[in-house]
Amino acid sequence: MAAQILDGKVLSAQIRDKVAERVCALKEQGVNPGLAVILVGNDPASEIYVRNKEKGCAETGILSRTIRMDAETSQEDLEAEIGKLNADPAIHGILVQLPLPAHLDEQAALAKILPEKDVDGFHLVNAGHLMTGTEGVVACTPKGALYMIRSTGTELSGKEAVVIGRSNIVGKPMAMLLLQQNCTVTVCHSRTRNLAEHTRRADILVAAVGKPGFVTADMVKPGAIVIDVGINRVDGKVCGDVDFESVKEKAGWITPVPGGVGKMTIAMLLSNTAEAAERTLSRE
Ligand code: NAD
Predict the structure, then answer these.
(1) Does the residue 121 lie in any domain?
(2) Structural domain boundaries, residue 247
(3) What is the per-residue pLDDT across 26-41, written as a single tens digit (0 to 9) for each?
(4) Catalytic residue numbers, as ranges
(5) Are residues 259 and 148 in the same domain?
């Protein structure tokens, strides 16, 4: 039987609707949530992401500010801009659009963002919170992927989860979130031997590799929840890391690309911004 589709459009709309309600409640209490995005240079893919973020803010009532900086911007100027936003009470969330031009130090820049305004959840403090299971900002893509997994209604405790990819922004935080759900988690990566032996055991399989069609049907357990985080471009068309056509015949649930995890990432960014604004109220 063909898999059920985990529709990112439908699921992200649920989150955006809730964010819009939370934003209304915040405004009634005198807080106008604001998100600032710093875009250095003019990478075409980043331009698209930034436009989508601006659109998401407009839809949910969040104030959006985009700071465009020249591709030649120095580290000092970038960090000075972050410092200004840290000090600006109208801004609750700060996002530095990655990748930065090669001469800039991403980690050093991210470390300058106040952890409570780090709505991407990339700051070491927030990574530490996730690691220790304490309250912090959770990275948007894995948070969105977990929402999709939970939307299946499957009991996650004790399930075998396999994450392919160990990046700091997707693979590792995804593994931590699944561990928090009491899954038995295996993280596979470029040096993993006999990858398919691991993936075939997975009740939940998350692919965050960056290789089109990498996960094929023979690597998937019948009935598995398959989450495709990959965003690849082949002949101008966007596709994921999962060979959707073959895998959908074997999986129980599957996310499409486009229209899957990508939509959730933006919705979770808006949710994290609302959360950051809510925290300012609880601090008063
Ligand atoms: P990355 O390049 O940092 O990490 C890729 C990971 O894949 C690495 O950990 C590597 O060990 C692993 N890998 C590579 N070859 C492998 C192999 N043969 N077998 C097993 N593992 C292998 O990438 P990333 O930033 O984690 O992103 C992964 C994908 O997700 C990319 O396509 C990216 O565009 C996409 N992405 C999507 C969203 C979204 O919103 N949907 C957000 C972030 C990233």
Answers:
(1) no
(2) 140-263
(3) 999 999 999 999 999 9
(4) 53, 97, 120
(5) yes
